[in-house]
Specification:
Blueprint lengths: L1 E9 L12 H16 L5 E7 L2 E8 L6 H20 L24 E8 L6 E7 L7 H9 L6 H4 L7 E7 L4 E6 L4 H8 L5 E8 L6 E5 L4 H5 L9 E5 L7 H6 L6 E4 L5 E4 L1 E2 L15 E7 L1 E2 L2 E2 L3 E2 L7 H15 L19 H7 L9
Parallel strand pairs: 13-14
Antiparallel strand pairs: 1-3, 1-4, 2-3, 5-10, 5-14, 6-7, 6-8, 8-9, 9-10, 11-12, 14-17, 15-16
Helix pairs in contact: 1-2
């Protein structure tokens, strides 16, 4: 049976600043999605938050980019945004950039990660949702999970994975994409995706066509959509696991470093990506640090099990401690790079005004 898993997310307002979504608003979204569930449009759903972002996961049989599915999520987010505005939540409706729906949510503000595949007899997958960071944040873990044998033992010892995977990479600034295969093109792939602000991994496929897609990442750049800064994307990723894909433990292992990502305060800083359980998904330290949550599911005919909060485990404490150490170290750089991002990546800047003010005082260096 072909199932589509769709994750649509947006920041529609939060409590006390850009910290965490509000339960009352989340209930409004739940109610709207539940109606679609009752009507039979979607098979199952789950709603949660990553910091100040509302996440809507839906399963159905309508394929990717389906107008009805996207509109259902968009309308639910609009209702949530209305409620957030009425109740004075901060940044209410900030990711709803257009009100008139046409076709699908791409270009309208919300982020989307979705994949269609032939459901296996048992279908384990993990949904990652991040806050205070950008889509390139997943380049490092997804590369390690699907291409690095020092992370994923299966690449070396599992005959079903030994041939490697196919990576689809987006050049987000030029609206182009390229497919590359590992291990043959590993070095070329790294030459691109090491540049996380320019090239982002969009999808990963198994080389066995019957297995199909293994991962998808939301890549909407809000600034490109809006023409000005309206917040980092706070991206989501869906990763299928086991039986020819990396084991769930190998998938999670990709997040064990607490690697540095762009985002954090005012979308203009580098900081460690801290894996946290849902109850720690609120960004309170310098609006961060950037964090990622992970929910693992099993699924049968599109019906989801309850989610497993995969980072709710002391096995992640050391990663979190290291993130906190790195967070503090980075913070002490204050307004200096590499804590602050270079001018081309900052989402808030006073630099043009400062340069204008000083234009007559700049003299040639002798
Ligand atoms: C980063 C983020 C926050 C805000 C910051 C300033 O993605 O959402 O760090 O950029 O709190 O917010 P404003 O400009 O709304 O006061
Ligand atoms: Mg926000
Ligand atoms: Mg956010």
């Amino acid at each position: 049976m072909k199932i589509t898993v769709t994750l649509i997310k947006a920041d529609i307002g939060s409590i006390g600043g850009h910290i965490r979504t509000c339960d009352v608003t989340t209930d409004v979204i739940c109610q709207a999605i539940d109606e679609a569930h009752q009507s039979g449009l979607i098979i199952d759903y789950k709603i949660w938050n990553a910091g100040d972002d509302s996440e809507i996961l839906m399963t159905h049989t309508r394929g990717v980019d389906d107008e009805k599915i996207h509109k259902t999520a968009f309308d639910a987010l609009m209702k949530g945004a209305e409620n957030a505005k009425e109740r004075g939540l901060y940044g209410a409706g900030q990711d709803i950039l257009k009100e008139a729906f046409s076709g699908n949510v791409r270009g309208m503000g919300p982020g989307v990660a979705e994949m269609e595949f032939e459901e296996r007899p048992a279908e384990p997958f993990v949904v990652f949702t991040a806050d205070k960071t950008a889509p390139g944040a997943y380049n490092y873990p997804i590369y390690r999970v699907f291409a690095d044998p020092f992370n994923t033992a299966g690449l070396v010892i599992d005959p079903k994975m030994h041939d490697g995977f196919i990576f689809e990479v987006f050049d987000i600034k030029n609206d182009k994409m390229v497919k590359m295969e590992t291990p043959a093109e590993t070095y070329d792939l790294l030459a691109l995706i090491g540049s996380t602000e320019d090239y982002v991994i969009k999808r990963v496929y198994s080389k066995d066509e019957s297995r199909g897609i293994g991962a998808v990442i939301s890549t909407e750049k809000l600034y490109a959509v809006a023409g000005k800064y309206v917040g980092k994307d706070d991206p989501a990723a869906i990763v299928r696991a086991q039986s020819g894909f990396p084991a769930t433990g190998e998938v999670l292992e990709g997040f064990a470093l607490g690697h540095l990502v762009t985002g954090w305060m005012r979308g203009s800083h580098n900081g460690p990506l801290m894996p946290v359980p849902l109850h720690y998904s609120q960004c309170t330290r310098f609006d961060g640090p950037p964090r990622v949550t992970g929910l693992a599911f099993s699924m049968k005919n599109g019906v989801l099990t309850e989610p497993l909060d995969v980072f709710d485990d002391p096995a992640w404490d050391l990663t979190r401690d290291q993130c906190l150490y790195v967070m503090d170290y980075m913070r002490r750089h204050g307004p200096f790079e590499p804590h602050r991002l270079p001018p081309s990546s900052m989402e808030y800047t006073t630099l043009p005004n400062v340069l204008k003010k000083l234009q007559n005082r700049f003299k040639p260096i002798k």
